[in-house]
Amino acid sequence: MSAALRIGMDIGGSKTAAVALDDAGTVVAATELGTVRGDDGVVDTAESAIVALATQTGVAPSGFASVGIGIPGQVDRGLGVVRNAYNIGVARLPLAQRLSARTGLAVSLDNDVTAAAIGAAHLMRLSGTVAYLNLGTGLSAGFVVDGVPLRGAHGVAGEIGHLAVDPRERPCPCGQRGCLETVASGSALRTYWPAGGDHPGRVLLSAIAAGDAEARAAYDALVAGAASCVRLLVLALDPHTVVIGGGLRLLGAPLVDGIRGELDLAAATSPFLTELELSARVQVLPADSSAAAVGAALAGNL
């Protein structure tokens, strides 16, 4: 294996996925392990992933070209610091510096959804402007324009989940009411459909099939909220493609067809929306995709 291999890592609340990419951007090795919470735990997890990839590829842990990490929270790329990543128990962590000190490798950080947008564009061979809509525990978006990520002046581009527009005005942890995240996210399903348990997306469709009216209401809100997000992204950025990603995409065709149906229904009464061809822009990230980890590896050069 070439020493030019790059590592990409997606550190999430429950698991960390890592890949090694060759010069052509092809995945040549992959690993997944549980994320250990807290500052030391996150650093330990990242180091363990590097060691696992080193074992698979035959490259010494210090022999990789670079490490890119996608991580939730507020990311300062210049300082290599992540803040307020509460789902992994981190308030402020200079992750790049600490991991580099342990491994001797160049380490860069990026927001996890931005990394996923980069990876999705690469793996799905998408050109032009790509918007990535992350329907997960939370709700946010990432953007790639002609292969270059759009991060914004303060690294918060794409935080559309905290746009307060929903007329139900449900309270959001951010302090506002009516945020899109209060209807179109896994956390919204848990809060407003408690019968779904800790992982409501896994049982939502079966509950609907069994006649659960509250599950149906939660699903309808999710679909309508996601469709609103697609309209928002198209009107704000006019992307060629809107990729649906995040864990809720695993609801599959019922969710995606529902979103497209909502978009077509709105377009049927609006010549303006008809011209935008909203539903035709929607694609879905494949279920087995390692987009966030791949994007993190590529992001160091972007």
TrEMBL record:
Which GO molecular function terms does the record list? kinase activity
List the coiled-coil residues: none
Q: Which Gene3D superfamilies match?
A: 3.30.420.40
Output the InterPro entries linked to this UniProt entry: ATPase_NBD, ROK
Q: Which Pfam families match?
A: ROK
Q: Which family does it belong to?
A: Belongs to the ROK (NagC/XylR) family.
Name of the molecule in the record:
Putative NBD/HSP70 family sugar kinase
Q: Give the originating organism.
A: Leucobacter luti
